[in-house]
Amino acid sequence: MIAVNMTPLLVTARGQSKRSVVLPALAAICSVLLCPADAFAQAARASGPNVLFIGVDDLNDWIGPLGGHPQSITPNMDKLAQRGVTFTRAYCQAPSCNPSRTSLMTGLRPSTSGVYNNADVWRKAVPDAVTLPQHFMLHGYEVLGGGKTFHGPQNEAASWEAYFQFKGFLHPSGKPVNGIPRTGHFDWSGLSARASETEDTRLAAWAERYLGEEHSRPFFLAVGFYRPHLPWYVPQEHFDRFPPSRVELPPTLEGDIDDVPESSLRSFRDHDNVTKYGQWHKAVAGYLACINYADANVGRVLAALEDGPHADNTIIVLWSDHGWQLGEKRQWRKFTLWERSARVVMMLAGPGVGAVGRKSGRTVELLDLYPTLVDLCGLPKRPELDGRSLRPLLHDPDATWDKPAITSLSPDRVSVRTERWRYSRYADGEELYDHGADPYEWNNLAARPEHGEVKASLARLLPKHPSRKQTVRYPDLPEAERRLVEVPEGRFRKSDPSNYVPLRETLD
Ligand SMILES: [Ca+2]
Asked: How many CA atoms within 13 Å lie on the side-chain side of 95?
């Protein structure tokens, strides 16, 4: 497969491989984006620090540094927190994969792009957007990705010089196994396989190899781990650490949903099934097992960086795309505007991160990462971005900061978070939570007259004119066009140039 994608023109020998791969990619981007003709000259001048950009899919705040679950075991993320800055009030711009990742990777809010749903074809919505990896590519970085970066079916070749594609995930025999009828991938089980046979650990091994080698240009390496996305199948050793009979369920309150708008809630089917079939403790154990597995993979990559030649000149970013509900408000999965879905993991370490080992409680957003990395690496700014560089907070985590965090489900279901408050607006109602007194968002204060002024001031922070343009849906894309957003399978190994996959070249 890889050999088929290669042409002798592009890669002929190890010494020529970088130039051979980069030039077509840059040319392709330039032709698409009409970038300045001096992009090649800029490419030659890149001298900033490297970026290791690690994403973990569907990871909520159940990690040591955020304290979301007292039994979570995340030694590697704990260690990263000691080396950098952890943002304790970091939020996604949309509580589902595609719109959140589109916002992160383009630096644009859903209210700007109109991308609110997993099926929305983001590239159709923002055809001129220069993605975060593209911006680094245009300025001379070697840009590689692997695993889940953009939303699965909507990864785009033009954002990468080479990509490590997942091949297929292992599952237990006889799946699904939890006994819930028609449960699909809402399932959890240990695997008898060794970690090295699983996709995320294969991805980690790919990144380890790259991080252990010398490179002549700075790199931007994106590593997107898939678990704890459903189904929760990871090696049994991780399940062994969380006996279901001993795991604690998340805090819940009887009658919690009595005071929320109807449209804030999704179906109760998952929760009814989980309780009916006695799966709540087992599900919590499964999620904790997957987080523990994700932490091990993150740890492998970080250890490779630390032991390799790039340890002192690489910015590390760890992020998740949104949170996850495990029965709070009788909800499972994401797709809600509450803290449990909106809060994400965001940690930075390395060059430019001065406040080592500190936490920042300022409200920050995933889309702030794009301008932050541009800033830390000394690349030209992009004025169209909606986020703000976090550089001041990386030196003084308590620095003055007036930007709230916005999370949207649609133009008419949107939430704003400040350090104390969460205010959410729906077509059929409102919510107001005082996080100073109510960390689980149990008491909706929106109807209390004494909070009228607070509510009004928070409402003014919501997007004024959110985009309502209809975006092409992925299932409606003609087959020929779907090829444009798929990345061909490829593995990158520096010692073997045939593993470079010049992605753009394979699309025609
Ligand atoms: Ca409530």
From this structure: 27
> SS3 for 116?
coil
**Residue of 429, 405, 425, 430 lying closest to 413 (CA atoms):** 425
- Strand order across the beta sheet in which 413-417 lies: 405-410, 413-417, 421-426, 429-434
262 CB burial (10 A radius; 0-12, 13-18, 19+): exposed
- Contact present, 405 and 386 (Cβ < 8 Å): no
pLDDT digits (tens, 9 = 90+) for 306-339: 999 999 999 999 999 999 999 999 999 999 999 9
Nearest to 328 by CA among 444, 250, 387: 250
Global confidence as pTM: 0.89
What are the pLDDT digits (tens) for 29-83?
444 444 444 444 455 567 899 999 999 999 999 999 999 999 999 999 999 999 9
| Residue 20 C-beta-side C-alpha neighbours within 13 Å | 18
Helix, strand, or coil here: 90? strand
The CATH code that applies to domain 2-404+479-506 is: 3.40.720.10
As a whole number of angstroms, the distance between CA 481 and CA 478 comes to 5
Cα of 335 vs centre of ligand 1, distance in Å, is: 17
Tallying the residues shown for the chain, one arrives at: 508
What is the CA(41)–ligand 1 centre distance, in A?
A: 58
Query: Ligand 1 centroid to 327 CA: how many Å?
Result: 13
For 320-347, the three-class secondary structure string (H helix, E strand, C coil) is: ECCCCEECHHHCEECCCCCHHHHECCEE
Domain spans, the chain: 2-404+479-506
Convert 87-122 to b/e letters by CB count within 10 Å (16 or more is b): bbbbbbbbbbbbbbbbbbbbbbbbbbbbbbbbbbbb
Query: What is the distance between the alpha carbons of residues 42 and 368, in angstroms, rounded to a whole number?
Result: 24
Residue 392 near residue 399 (C-beta atoms within 8 A): yes
Query: How far apart are the CA of 443 and the centre of ligand 1, in A?
Result: 5
Backbone angles phi, psi at 235, to 5 degrees: -50, 140
Classify 146 in phi/psi space as left (phi over 0), alpha (psi -120 to 50) or beta.
beta
H-helix or E-strand containing 455? helix 452-459
322/326 Cα distance (integer angstroms): 14
Q: How far is the CA of 324 from the centre of ligand 1 (A)?
A: 18
Active site residues: 97, 151
Is the CB of residue 63 less than 8 Å from the CB of residue 88? no
